[in-house]
Design a protein that fits this description.
This protein has 259 residues and is of the alpha/beta class. It is built from eleven helices and seven strands. The longest helix has 13 residues.
């Protein structure tokens, strides 16, 4: 069987998810040996930018017009397109609501050169093209990334967690950061896969992996209000990483406002 041809690309983002792959130091040579790595601009100097690819990993969100153009070209070249990391899956922190007009924002960030940048409101890959697999995380978890690569090499899509961080937290027998400590924790509505890293260190889950499927956002908001958090506190936390998720846009922005 021929090795699958693979490309790894980044749109607008911090490149942390590509770095997570490079940080698989003990496994990296095995991964490279098992695939035909055609393109990885972050790590390679010679890249195939035209040929067909079996699997494409794409990190970052669509924030510039050229991001969308590049993404559509990658989708046309790829049999499977994998959204890598929270920015690619949900929009990430760069998709947070900002009241400043974009022209003014560009000017404040880039000065007199701001008008040269064709920026748009940050959006996830799925708003533009079909995504075959979404691997969330800020950055993506090494173990989950390796499991996904192994499954793809066997011709399968990996099985990802369909339960909340709260479940991992209970399995670790952690005291509840939300109920017992009264802190603004999103563990009940955030998809698992991190082994409840933050609550295991007595820190609230900030929702960096995005919402679990069928997240009960209404109940989460109710509990947070009972704990004394304001509508602004709740909205800001809910939309920090996954403001483009339908469950959070619809429920949180309406119900959190009904203080």
């Amino acid at each position: 069987m021929d090795k699958p041809s693979v490309g790894i690309y980044g749109l607008t983002g911090c490149a942390g998810d590509q770095l997570a792959l490079l940080n698989c130091e003990d496994e990296l040579l095995d991964i490279v040996g098992a695939v035909n790595l055609k393109s990885f601009p972050m790590a390679m100097t010679s890249n195939d930018e035209e040929g067909p690819l079996d699997i494409v990993f794409v990190e970052g969100g669509v924030v510039q017009a050229e991001d969308e153009q590049m993404l559509r070209k990658l989708r046309d070249r790829a049999k499977l397109l994998i959204a890598l990391g929270t920015c690619a899956v949900w929009g990430g922190v760069q998709a947070m609501k900002n009241e400043i007009p974009r022209e003014e924002l560009n000017r404040q960030v880039y000065g007199s050169q701001g008008e040269r940048f064709e920026t748009i409101t940050a959006q996830p890959l799925s708003h533009f093209v079909k995504v075959d697999l979404a691997l969330s995380g800020c950055p993506v978890e090494k173990g989950q990334l390796l499991q996904a690569v192994a499954a793809l090499l066997h011709g399968d899509l990996p099985r990802l967690p369909n339960y909340a961080v709260c479940t991992e937290c209970k399995m670790a027998e952690n005291p509840c950061v939300l109920i017992e400590a009264g802190r603004l924790c999103l563990g009940p509505i955030t998809v698992a896969g991190c082994n409840a890293r933050c609550p295991s260190h007595n820190q609230p889950c900030i929702g960096c992996r995005g919402p679990v499927e069928e997240a009960n956002v209404s109940s989460e908001i109710k509990v947070l209000k009972e704990k004394g958090f304001t509508s602004v506190d709740i909205r800001n936390r809910l939309c920090t990483f996954a403001g483009e998720a339908d469950s959070l846009k619809i429920d949180s922005l309406k119900e959190a406002s009904n203080a």
